[in-house]
Design brief:
This protein has 550 residues and is an alpha+beta fold. A hairpin with a 2-residue loop joins strand 24 and strand 25. The chain starts with a helix and ends with a strand.
Length: 550
């Protein structure tokens, strides 16, 4: 197949798989991002989120403790807590260098969270870092270090400002059932306008800005300012989908950015924290890139400015993996299928280079050979298959071992035989994915599209039953196509990404485009996640993930 033909197939499949991520639509009333800048942003792939503010001294949720708080709490929070905030050990260069080692290409710092506390030298309010023992512009330090390292500079900014509401005699809250008084709203808009003007004027070119909250006039005013002052800036939240603490169920050909925590909290949480493993964080990153998205992984510095050791440890584990495998994350697009079971794909269509990322492998002793079959991949006479990071010539301390990678195209797919040869840890054990690089690759299939429809609760023989529904949206040319559904209890907003196990219905034969299954679920009062899938040629294509309370 010629290069143009391959690109046509990829475009066709991308169109089949692409879907809007509906949960984010409320913040996307306008998008003046330049298309070429959005493509630049997509190529970055992986970034660091930094949530940091003066309330890190308490190890509590950033900003949100103000909502519903007593007058005494608010008074002490606003007037007393900043007096002891001194991140004297904040080293922007050290944090930036660690981000760069981990494969991150951009960083987004909280310039102002919902509390209204500004981390820069602002003239718009006294509620800022200059009026703390630290007394320095932390945003300026961050921008300088990030720019010097060659990473893209990003700001987080909250149009919502609890301090403004508090000072103006308004209830501290995020969503209002009634509009603010006109004269208050006018001042609110002016504050946001001036603060965004400062941020765009003081620090040179800003590449990315992430708006959180302030739907409607506040958000639109902020976006208007930054697009006018810096036309090349990419607005993420506020213009494109930014799923929080989750990865969408399907591939999208539009830009999107998942943002998530290593543990359960954005800001520093010194106790009662549960961290994801480094391996799990890698799996989430790989899935995100395979589905066409960016990932923004959060850290929350301690009140003295240092990163918690648990977060540094995970970043260094990502750094070790990235040093070997980083090319499969940066400047990649989705393949015709995001995955074949636990093998995930990323793709460089211009180079016709495919990466097959081998996740969830049983313990793989160094020097052991394993076999894999890729059904969606076709090679050519010019193809080469290798393991990233390995020469294919040596297994240390095992001179008789064959470290080469072999492959053969057969009727049922591409057969690959490879060895884990490289020593990453002292004890020879390495729990993280190995990556196969396949050059001159072509799609062997055009997969069908599948949609998950809203489930229904029907009465069956006097009992309420949950009925899953799906649809094949494009025809697949194969003898047998089966359908099924996967489901699980919803683990919770923060906990959803901690694991990715599903239960499954029995398979059925596809007779028409629409299909359904009556579930055997009996637990009532629970929220369930579910998704449709179809099985063809021993491959699966999934629909998006939906939720229902049953």
């Amino acid at each position: 197949m010629k290069k143009s033909g391959v690109l046509l197939v990829i475009l066709l499949v991308a169109n089949i798989l692409s879907a809007q991520i509906s949960e984010e639509k409320e913040n996307q009333s306008s998008n003046l991002n330049k298309p070429e800048r959005e493509e630049w942003f997509r190529d970055l792939g992986f970034g660091m989120f930094i949530h940091f503010s003066f309330d890190s001294q308490l190890g509590i949720v950033i900003s949100h403790s103000m909502a519903g708080a007593s007058d005494d709490y608010l008074n002490r929070y606003v007037h007393e807590l900043p007096k002891t905030f001194n991140p004297k050990d904040f080293d922007a260069r050290e944090i930036v260098n660690l981000a760069k080692l981990a494969g991150m290409k951009y960083i987004v710092l909280t310039t102002k969270h919902h509390s209204g506390f500004c981390m820069w030298d602002t003239k718009t309010t006294d509620f800022n870092i200059m009026n703390t023992p630290y007394g320095k512009d932390l945003v300026a330090e961050y921008v300088q270090a990030t720019s010097d390292a060659g990473l893209a500079v990003g700001f987080y900014f909250s149009p919502e400002d609890f301090h403004f509401l508090y000072k103006n005699g308004q209830q501290v809250r995020r969503k209002f059932t009634e509009p603010l008084p006109h004269h208050i709203m006018k001042k609110y808009l002016e504050l946001n306008e001036l603060q965004n003007m400062e941020l765009m004027a003081k620090y040179g070119d800003i590449d990315i800005i992430f708006y959180d909250g302030g739907d409607g006039p506040l958000l639109e005013k902020c976006k208007q300012v930054v697009w006018e002052l810096q036309p090349n800036i990419v607005v993420t939240r506020g213009a494109i989908p930014t799923p929080e603490q989750r990865v969408p169920g399907i591939v999208s050909n539009e830009p999107w950015e998942a943002n998530l925590t290593m543990g359960t909290q954005w800001a520093y949480k010194p106790t009662n924290e549960e961290y994801k493993s480094g391996t799990r964080l890698l799996e989430i990153l790989i899935e995100t890139r395979a589905k066409g998205g960016n990932q923004l992984l959060n850290v929350g510095p301690k009140p003295n400015g240092e990163l918690p050791i648990e977060q540094e440890e995970r970043l260094r584990e990502l750094a070790a993996w990235n040093f070997v495998n980083g090319e499969c994350i940066e400047k990649v697009k989705p393949w015709v299928l995001p995955n074949e079971e636990n093998i995930w794909f990323t793709w460089k269509p211009e180079e016709k280079t495919l990466y097959a990322i081998l996740t969830k492998q049983p313990a793989w002793p160094r020097g052991e050979r394993r076999e894999f079959v890729l059904k969606s991949v076709k090679t050519s006479t010019n193809s080469v298959v290798s393991v990233l990071g390995q020469s294919g010539e040596l297994v240390e301390y095992n001179p008789n071992a064959d470290a080469k990678t072999y492959f053969e195209q057969k009727d049922d797919g591409l057969h690959i035989s490879c060895v884990r040869a490289q020593r990453i840890y002292n004890n020879h054990k390495w729990p993280n994915p190995i990556v196969l690089k396949i050059t001159a690759a072509e799609p062997a299939i055009i997969p069908p599209g599948v949609t998950t429809h809203n489930a229904e609760i029907n009465l069956q023989r006097g009992y309420e039953r949950l009925v899953f529904k799906g649809e094949i949206t494009t025809i697949v040319e194969t003898e047998k196509v089966k359908y099924g559904f996967q489901y699980r209890e919803y683990a919770g907003f923060v906990e959803e990404l901690n694991k990715d196990t599903w239960l499954e219905t029995e398979l059925g034969d596809v007779l028409t485009n629409d299909f359904r299954t009556i579930s055997k679920l009996t637990k009532k009062g629970k929220t369930y996640q579910y998704r449709a899938f179809i099985e063809f040629n021993k491959l699966r294509q999934f629909g998006d993930i939906k939720e229902i309370i049953f």
